Amino acid sequence: MDAPYFLPEHVFKDKCMLPKSLEKHDKNLYFLTNKIAESLGGSGYSVERLSVPYVPQVTDEDRLSRRKSIVDTVSIQVDILPNSVPSDDVVSNTEEITFEALKKAIDTNGMEEQEKEKRRLVIEKFQKAPFEEIAAQCESKANLLHDRLAQILELTIRPPPSPSGTLTITSGHAQYQSVPVYEMKFPDLCVY
What we know:
The chain is mainly alpha-helical. Among the domains are: 13-81, no CATH class; 95-158, no CATH class. It has seven helices and four strands, in the order αβαααβαααββ. It is flat. Residues 70-86 and 88-93 have low confidence and may be disordered.
């Protein structure tokens, strides 16, 4: 070691003496796991690992090393108050969330009334409207649905235009109509 006088005096002692202020248990220095869990959980982080107690583990590197340092001799411990210690601002009781509680939270009265009104109108229409009017309305809805489906299928199934052109047969003569280069669709990314 070139300059041992730069290091604190207690580095070279075998047993490190802790200050008297750290030997007494001051509850203001503890971490409250429920407070940490509350703040982390509110931010969307997982708090499951907070319930696992911290156990320092000696690594292979520590075992192989003969040199002792201040970090090796003084184990770093995080003192955590158990959840059983009551605090004045700690809320320990949590509301149990069940399917029934969620059902009550969702306002279904308005939706049920709208659904009943729709059913009533459909039943009334079938009872009072002439058959031809109902058939014409169903046919127009079916045609609309068929046209929309045909549009979707045409867009998804139709292959892109070939650069060599398309073959069109008019009055028995085959003609190729090629696509100009400036109208061709090239991919954004190419692999060479």
